[in-house]
User: Fold SH3b domain-containing protein from hydrothermal vent metagenome.
Amino acid sequence: MKTPKFLNVIVAATFMLVASTIAAFAVPATATTGVNVRSGPGTGFGIVDTLHAGEAVNVTECQGGWCYVEKSGPDGWVSGNYLQAAAAPAAPAPSSAANDAAAAAAINVFGTIAGAVIGNI
Assistant:
């Protein structure tokens, strides 16, 4: 299927907007079960710690189905299959629609890269 050129431009522009926004957001999540925290994104990397079921983390990036998590203790990589988006906190003060859209896009991209949408705004 041939994609129209303008659609490619829109997709590329959206990706650049989201990619520049992702670094600014950490997505709160919890471990769905006990899972190893690794030094890199894959089972070939060493285990640096373990997450317990229900343990809270902040997801800062995902690649190839693996997500980098920040937590108390050593940070590292966890399979996105074992993370679930945390419940949304109380609504903050009103902000611009552009910021809200960028935050929602960043959350959806984290989930999409990890293999499933882990949260929506």
User: Anything to note?
Assistant: The chain has two helices and seven strands.
